[in-house]
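Side project, low priority. Logging it here so it doesn't get lost.
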Amino acid sequence: MTEIIAHRGYRLVAPENTLPAFEAALAFHPDMLEMDVHRTLDGKLVVIHDEKVDRTTNGTGYVKDLTLAEIKALDAGSYKEPKISNVTVPTLFEFLTFLKEQQFNQTLLLEVKTDHVTYPGIESEILDMVEIFKPNYPIIYQSFNLESLKIIRKLKPDAEIAALVFWVTPKVLWLKFRGVFDYIHPDIRILNRKPAFFWRKNAHIRPWTVDKESDMRRVFEANIPGIITNQVALAVKMRKEIQEHE
């Protein structure tokens, strides 16, 4: 059955990458939660997607140039509808604490956001933070930055690792063959360039971001291993209609 991965929580009903968004996603029992990690000026790990805070808060500037206190002072809940008051950018510690309190037992898809800004040593810091919680749920580490994936593989040889890519290039396939990572997470546009049997025989592929109903239907009908989506409720509904009645 195709895995449903909630992209940045359930960002259509709550501000993305905030605790309310993750709580909303969990209400629909997705197979995975996806989130993103950056590092502040004073070395704190925070859950936010963009390199800048401009789009998702009422502040401005790069995460790397702001202290945790400065980021915590920002409003992360009122930039979109529906607005939620008293919402801030969570730290990775707060997020992992939330999962523990929720008795989370699905899979966490943790994206290391080093594709535009370099955070030397962030890979080991994330692994160390995760180790504090000793989670009993699976974690897959993903990134667009293949060097970050190599570092994670070296630091934690048994880690589950995914390469985020726009296209599946020969280099990507070679690195997977070498064992640098276990899974490939490509742009959904590849669906239009590869026949259904290609997806079915490649159990390591989960495309992003699958929001169109037509794409979602094709994914479920082809039994593609997984999808990363913002449309969590729709995905759950369509999977039940298509795959549970096959």
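Brief comment: The chain has a mean pLDDT of 93.
Revisit when time allows.
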